[in-house]
Design goal:
9-stranded parallel beta sheet, about 300 residues, TIM Barrel, globular, 14 strands, about 35% helix, alpha/beta, single chain
């Protein structure tokens, strides 16, 4: 397999927020041993000084990997999950670390901290937050991929975000307003809009198997990418782990914080492919959802 993961926070005890080069190399080799050829290290919101240091360290490692021996899964950019998302749909993201998209000084400070990302920079944001639509335009004009997630947006706001350059939904159905017959929200919008791609956490914990089938049937596999959304304890035994300052518990294939909220996944991308095949998706289509489709999204 030649898989590409658009959304990975870590695995095998390695946290991309804090890991040094040797641990990042171990993560890269571990992913490659599972069939993952490329991945986008994904950051949760941080204080801006911490973010700047993290991005500088990660960027240096990404550049070194591009010039290296080619062993291991290749880092393809950096994915910023937040900080311009809805507090009401923050999920496991810390609301205190979210930023006001209307405050241009904070936006400029974020961009300065993000620096010059090697590969493709990706941001997941909520277009309905104050200043959110202007942020879509700003990031798109700078060449960033703009994903929509952790959102409570209305259909009309999402259409405007699409017009401004946001064409993808992050961990579809999770951390967004549920589908309602009088308020279709982001889920209805993502299912209906042609040209909009979505990604799914196919660990069968974040989504019911029939929900996965529904999304694939309505969107078609060519518009659906699989992601792991793997947290640092992915690949480790059940137990309690301190991640992002919180104690997270891994049990029965899920990882949750003290409030009981899911905090990423402990499944890796090949397991998602296997789950799709077990649901009756043809093997070639399942593998394309974790290879061809995410590569096309990154190149868009």
């Amino acid at each position: 397999m030649n898989l590409v993961d658009l959304h990975l926070h870590g695995a095998f005890g390695v946290d991309v927020l804090t890991a040094r080069d040797t641990d990042l190399d171990r993560l890269s080799l571990g992913l490659a041993s599972r069939g993952v050829a490329g991945f986008v290290p994904t950051l949760v919101p941080l204080g801006l000084s911490d973010l700047a240091a993290t991005v500088e360290r990660l960027s240096a490692w990404i550049r070194s990997r591009a010039e290296g021996d080619g062993r291991g899964a290749m880092p393809l950019g950096i994915h910023f999950e937040g900080p311009f998302v809805s507090p009401a749909r923050a999920g496991a993201l810390r609301p205190a670390r979210l930023l006001d998209g209307q405050d241009r000084r904070k936006v400029d400070a974020f961009l300065e901290a993000a620096g010059d990302v090697p590969g493709r920079p990706v941001v997941t944001l909520a277009p309905e937050v104050p200043g959110g639509l202007d942020l879509v335009s700003l990031f798109a004009k700078r060449g960033w991929l703009v994903f929509i997630g952790h959102t409570d947006a209305s259909f009309a706001t999402l259409d405007e975000a699409l017009a401004r350059g946001a064409r993808h939904l992050t961990h579809f159905c999770n951390a967004m307003r549920p589908l309602h017959h009088r308020d279709p929200g982001a889920i209805g919008w993502g299912l209906l809009r042609d040209g909009v791609t979505v990604d799914l956490i196919a660990d069968l914990v974040h989504l019911h198997p029939e929900t996965v089938r529904l999304v694939l049937k309505v969107k078609g596999p060519s518009q659906v990418a699989l992601i792991s959304d793997a947290s640092p304890p992915a690949g480790l035994p059940d137990g309690s782990y301190v991640v992002w300052g919180d104690t997270l518990t891994v049990r029965f294939g899920s990882i949750r914080n003290a409030a009981g909220s899911l905090a990423g996944s402990v499944s890796l991308l090949p397991e998602g492919v296997a789950n799709l095949i077990a649901l009756g998706v043809p093997e070639a289509e399942a593998e394309a959802c974790a290879s061809t489709v995410p590569r096309r999204i990154l190149a868009s």
